[in-house]
Amino acid sequence: MATTETQVVGEIGNEYRYGFHDPEDYFFKSQRGLTREVVAAISEHKDEPQWMRDFRLKSLEYFEARPMPEWGGDLSGIDFDNIYYYIKPTETQAKSWEDLPPDIKQTWDRLGIPEAERKFLAGVGAQYESEVVYHKLQAELEEKGVLFLDMDSGLREHEDLVRQYFGTIIPQNDNKFAALNSAVWSGGSFIYVPPGVSIEMPLQAYFRINAENMGQFERTLIIVDEGAYVHYVEGCTAPIYTTDSLHSAVVEIIVKPGARCRYTTIQNWSSNVYNLVTKRAVAYENATMEWVDGNLGSKQTMKYPAIWLMGEGAHGEVLSIAFAGEGQHQDAGGKAVHVAPNTSSVITSKSISKNGGRSSYRGLLEVAKGATGARSKVVCDALILDEESRTDTYPYIRIDENDVDIGHEATVSKIGEEQLFYLMSRGLSEAEAAAMIVSGFVEPITKELPLEYAVEMNRLIQLQMEGSVG
Amino acid sequence: MALLEIKNLHVSTEDGTEIVRGVDLSVNTNEVHAIMGPNGSGKSTLAYALMGHPAYEITEGDILVDGESILELEADERAQRGLFLAFQYPHAVPGVTVASFLRSAINAVRKAKAGGEDDPIKIPEFRKRLDAAMKQLKVPKEMAGRYLNDGFSGGEKKRVEILQMALLQPRLAVLDETDSGLDIDALRIVAGGVRELVGPEMGALVITHYQRILNYIKPDFVHVFVDGRIVREGGPELAEQLEAEGYETFTPEPVGGEA
């Protein structure tokens, strides 16, 4: 951590680092607002099969029929008529960074993605507005039969596989925003890992919103076949605008018997983005699903990664960090649904609220009749940095089986004057001392991240901490 | 000019209660001063006030380091000037390892010395110094990877305080009841560590209730502290007299002046 801190100390005083934006010079940009015509045009533009076009139009009906959710966060600021639902920045997808238009390439350079790819990634997808503009997978993984494509290419090139699973984990009418995504989805990742193939380095997708009032609706489908392993990482940033953007993704994951999937998100949207995401995985016999979910940015996040433990011996984990600063509400958590016997789950949530920010833990633990021997542990720790900030816990628990072992712990703490004084007496400034306490608080989660991401997470926390004390 | 000069210092708590009631004291490098006093006499308040604890207000007097007042400085700035306080009750920082914390603290002090420019210690050099200091203070190697003071025994905490002192290389170390909670072997090691550091680069102010630690640290000056004031001053023999006769014989009649 010390290296990171040294780097970070040099950056103190900077604001959100990714708030720049490129001039808009797009291949195609839809009209503002959502109509049947816009949805049909997206499908047409992508030259999709009829079943997908029908799926989209039906989803639009579900979206229109459903009321806005009244629980969770305040979504009254979303103006669906003012949003661009589809922007295609380039005509074709690049296979090398050099092939991208200079503005877009420069964006990725500034975000450090090409460098990360060279150093420690097995594959990269980079989505800019609605489309994945760059995609690459290591040749040896391609030879092993690993598929890592953007969702649109996945649909074109592997239609049968996509049709078999698409919308089966998260039905198109699951909730209002899943319906919206189902209607206007574009981009996202399609991953298939064949039986027994273990991908040692992570696959990463990077999501960037550039235009004002943009709606980004990526759609990700991951199938990890028997005994296989993949770690997928996504990162998200956007420019700072005075009016709001919307990010509403759907992520469906199937973890087959004996397989393991880890899905890591480091969400650092700018503070004008509504981030309303549905993520759900099913884990079969002896499979393991892990969500590592870091929410640092956005105006309003509502996201509760879910795991359905469908096969005996399946294990699920959700590690969630939420950091709510000024004007931010992080409504995050996790869901574990035990359907089969001898399944286990752990949900660990750590939240930090400062400068009037609000973080809420919202989680569901459900054990179905017949899921004997299910074990689950939920731990929620909240850290509040000042009097203006707020934290809440909404744990929902439904148990329909007697033979289970369930634990729930929740703590709320504040950074104490004595703790700060102790660290300051060693020469650390008040901000450095507070940042150190916060880094330590989230350490149980950052230590689970690959080094590069742990460094990034700590750096983001340090940036969030600036100006928060003193 | 003394390294540390305390002039007619009066310290109150937030509710206005005066705890330290007029203290004069000078400490130089190469000197060990002992402040001995009964429980509740205000010794720890004096230590906190020296380090700049925000809960204590200095109502009168001054604290000078190298002839400059430090009253307006925050705790971190005082540390950067070379002050160090070994806490009686060190605080836990879960999730932050001893090694990581020490490196950050060293780098913060180095940065201040470099006029605000980053000047991080090289990792091999840090490792070398950390290993050497841990070995000397007989701190088990695995402690470097444990979270700072989190679940430490009283003795472990005290040793890690002295470890911090050894690595941060202060010019004036204030040790607040460092002897409490230490068994005799640990006490010998810790006292040896302090004595080793006292020299042309460092002076020490040892605050204690008992004479025990002084058998190992051997003070040059002893100040008897009762009811917020220094009531008697002398050489090491004063500590022995205290041990034999107790604090009762020292009437709370203040004596001022330089040590």
Number of domains of chain A: 1
Please identify, by name, the CATH architecture of chain B: 3-Layer(aba) Sandwich
Task: Please state the structural category of chain B.
Answer: alpha/beta
Radius of gyration of chain A: 21 Å
Distance between the termini of chain A: 23 Å
Q: Name the quaternary structure.
A: heterodimer
Q: Biggest interface, and residues per chain?
A: A-B, 31 and 35 residues
Nearest-integer average pLDDT of chain A: 89
- The computed structural class of chain A is alpha/beta
User: Which fold name corresponds to the CATH topology of chain B?
Assistant: Rossmann fold
**Sheet of most strands of chain A:** 12 strands, mixed
Q: Could you tell me the strand content of chain A as a percent range? A: 35-45%
Rg of chain B from C-alpha positions? Answer: 18 Å
Stretches of chain B where pLDDT falls below 50 for ≥5 residues? Answer: none
Number of strands of chain B: 10
Mean pLDDT of chain B: 92
Task: Describe the protein's topology.
The complex is a heterodimer of chains A (470) and B (259).
Chain A: H1 2-9, E1 28-29, H2 36-45, H3 50-65, E2 87-88, H4 102-111, H5 113-120, E3 123-128, E4 131-137, H6 139-143, E5 147-150, H7 151-157, H8 159-165, H9 176-184, E6 189-193, E7 203-208, E8 215-216, E9 219-224, E10 229-237, E11 245-247, E12 250-255, E13 260-267, E14 273-283, E15 288-295, E16 300-303, E17 306-309, E18 315-324, E19 329-338, E20 344-353, E21 358-367, E22 374-384, E23 390-399, E24 404-414, H10 417-424, H11 430-446, H12 451-465
Parallel strand pairs in A: 3-7, 6-9, 7-10, 8-11, 9-12, 10-13, 11-14, 12-14, 13-15, 14-16, 14-17, 15-18, 16-19, 17-19, 18-20, 19-21, 20-22, 21-23, 22-24
Antiparallel strand pairs in A: 1-2, 3-4, 5-6
Helix pairs in contact in A: 1-12, 2-3, 3-9, 7-8, 10-11, 11-12
Chain B: E1 4-13, E2 18-27, E3 32-36, H1 43-51, E4 56-65, E5 68-69, H2 75-80, E6 83-86, H3 98-113, H4 123-136, H5 154-168, E7 172-176, H6 184-197, E8 203-208, H7 214-217, E9 221-226, E10 229-234, H8 236-245
Parallel strand pairs in B: 3-8, 3-9, 6-7, 7-8
Antiparallel strand pairs in B: 1-2, 1-4, 4-5, 9-10
Helix pairs in contact in B: 3-5, 5-6
